[in-house]
Design brief:
Blueprint (H helix, E strand, L loop, with lengths): L2 E7 L3 H17 L8 E7 L5 H12 L6 E2 L4 H14 L3 E3 L16 E3 L4 H14 L4 E7 L2 H6 L1 H9 L3 E8 L11 H10 L3 E5 L2 H13 L8 E4 L1 H4 L2 H4 L2 E2 L2 E2 L9 E4 L8 H10 L15 H22 L24 H9 L2 E3 L4 E3 L10 E8 L2 E9 L3 E4 L25 E6 L7 E2 L15 E2 L1 H13 L2 E6 L8 E2 L4 E2 L1 H7 L5 E2 L7 H6 L1 E2 L8 E6 L17 H24 L3 H13 L4 H9 L2 H10 L13 H36 L4 H5 L5 E4 L4 H8 L5 H10 L1 H4 L4 H10 L2 E6 H8 L6 E8 L7 E2 L6 H13 L2 H10 L23 H31 L8 H24 L1
Parallel strand pairs: 1-2, 1-3, 3-4, 4-5, 6-7, 6-8, 8-9, 18-21, 18-24, 27-28
Antiparallel strand pairs: 10-11, 12-15, 13-14, 15-16, 16-17, 19-20, 22-23, 25-30, 26-28, 26-29
Helix pairs in contact: 1-12, 2-3, 4-6, 12-13, 17-20, 17-21, 17-30, 21-30, 23-24, 30-31
Length: 886
Amino acid sequence: MPQFSALSVSDFPAASSALKIAVEYVNEKQLVPNVILDYTENTTTTSLDFLHMIQNECFQASQGVVAVIGPVLSSQVKATSPVSTGLSLPQIAPEATDPTLGNAQQYPQLVRISWPDSVLSKALIDLLEHFSWDQMSIFVSNDDYGTHGFKEFQDLAGQKGWRIHTIQSFDPTEAAADIEVHEQLKAIKDTGARIIVLHCLAPYAAEILREASTMDMTGADWAWVVSDRITSYGRDLFGTTNATVTIPDYLPGLVGPMSPSTNGGHSEAFMAKWRSANPVVYPGAGVADIDPYTARWADAVLALAQALRNLQEDGVTVTPQPLDCGCDGSESQPWADGSVMLQYLKKVKTDGVTGYIQFDSAGTRVDAEYNIVNLNSTGWQKVGTWNISTGLTMYSDGDIKLLVGSVEVNPYVSNLRNKTLRVVTKAANGFVLISDVGKDGNNVTGNDRFQGFCMDLLSWMSTELGCKYEYYEVEDGHFGIYNSKTGKWNGLIGDVLYGKADITMTPLFITAERQTAGEFTLPFYDNGMTFAMKKSALRTSNTWGFISPFQGELWVTILLTALAVGLFQGVANSATKDIDTELQGDEVSESEPPSHEDKDEDRETGCCEAVWQSFVALVQLGPEFLPRSLAGRVSAFFWGVGILVAISTYTANLAAFLTVRNVDNSIKSAEDLLGQKEISYGTVRTYAQWVSFKTSTIEPYHSLGVVMKSKEETVLVDNLQEGLDKMRQERYALFAGSSELDYHASRQPCDLQTIGRVFWQTGYGMFLPKNSKYTVEFNKVIVAAKERGIFDALDAKWIKSQECSGTDQTVLESSVIGLQDMLGVFVLVYGGMALALIVLIGEFIYTCAQDVKKSDAHPKTITEAAKRRLLRIFSRGKRSRNKNQV
């Protein structure tokens, strides 16, 4: 006596009854000649008790069975399938529809009686297309059935260009009445989509539709398209009392596909037993109809019986054997005949209760078909059919009544007039001005803090659309850049995508990358990319132009330094001169006039001569004498280095003054920037255009991007203001939005100009989430604003200024070298003098010590020698003047 096992759930008693009646039917009809089919059944009390189901299957396998039928849901089948796979025990799933179960490598022992939800999705798509509904929202259960089941639907809708406004989900609970769906329904309602596709089990659908009715979402301007798990379990959706159908008044009008329940060759005979069954013994039976998925438990028994019959007719014997799951740590052994049993199951071709039963190589039932049904006050009415071969066939549109008896529903209705939009913005000159102080000097809050082109435009739009809005400034200060490492957007784009804002209102460039994340309105301001530079210098003659390379304070500092070096060298020479030589010179001068050599010697040791030589060195004339002291020579060396740097810098900057203006005048386009090296160029690193430069393959923008990338640290700026400052202070060209550069070039101090043609012309748009219901409304008013001249008026008011209209195109450019630029040179010179001073002190002490070591006429101590030398240094000038008088 061949035996199979069944895994059922107490929540679905009708399935157990169908199984039991089907076994009796097979034995009565002798569908397997001379064989009595038997089975063991284990029931789990809750749908989510997966561990208990696995334990039940292991117990059944130990009894020696040829196959396992069940459990009910896809998630339950996935939980128990590893046991069947490990034991090589065929498993027949009557109701599981998760498309991922079709993976024969992951679920090799599985045979499915129900068609996968990927096929159901095709039927739903054809039904929606029949009504010309191309916009919708989706509501699914957050489980394998809900999430996996509608992936195919989303793909097909995307291929057709349909708009899915939102996909909401809920967490299933043990008791359907415990689900929480209010917020999800509110989100669906707020999208404006009036077509809702509902995909879940019937008990949950009953609660969802009841809640929807309290939110005015089941009226004449709504349509609910439900999947076959809802249409197939009518009792769970609306219930019956004493065989009388009770349908709440908010339900009639539902439409969707329903699996056939009695289209098979065995349906008439089986249904006779079903109707005559005692409902006490067979719960759920004893009624006129059977739910389609309940009938598939009977199909599972009939498929198994046919496989056993084919084995018998082919003379193939399969021997059931007790199988051990190895739960106690022992090694499990698969069933030796399991592969043969599975092979014969997949080859079954037989009549069933619901229809003809046949499988493909993966164990999936073929020849899918559905009835299209519409709920009215008495129950489901068949209004069409669908099958995998011919598609949808509708009987008559007049037979279909949607909610509240309506025959047509607009798939999308905007409720923008009742909406307060959360608008994110970012400061941009002319377009968005943000201040906490109003024009009258008083503090302002809320929307009053924001002014500009964008604010005036949205104010006009809101009047046309009847909506309200609340501004706030983006927190991180960015327009929006995608981070490939984190997979997230920042700035304005991120705020909209992650639900913080409904829409942007700021000069935001429309780019392809941003459009993949969300969607833009039509451009509200035509804009592109260009570059600007500081206006070129006006070529004029200047008599004293040769001093222009250095600022005045730098010239003064150089001259003062020359004086300081000269005085220092004079003092150093005097402080370290041999005192005996000086005494001898004094004695000779009293008896005879000084010779020419004496005059030279005296001139060498004076301060005036040292100062003169320091100034002479500035024009690179050779020295008339070298300092005698070591300290003087040290200071002379560092002064020489300083002079070398100063002269080299002066020469280079003078040449630049005479030639650089010709370079400026030669830049007429972006291509010209590539042909020179005197002017650097870059853009704002946080702008979308920087990404465009890096990815462009079109010349000259590709080459410009390569050059900018190689000098990224020096040519890219963090914001527009930094770029404007860089243009005014350096030889630099800034690439940015043409409107931004026009704004600054048309205002004081009128020292900037935009150059070349505008490229990458896209414009500024308002950014919204993908499939936003507001995009169409805003596009309409943008077109209206252009027709009425609103943009031209705002452009003249906020962007295009006449401040620089009367000025010349060129201004005098100042590129002189200042004291700050040469500060290092003076640090070097004065540092050298400090070192020389230290050497001078040491040399002076040493010389004093030598004076002490000489004859008795010399001082006895170093202190006395130092005083004597200092006295002679200060008295020497007086003697020199006396000599000159003589």
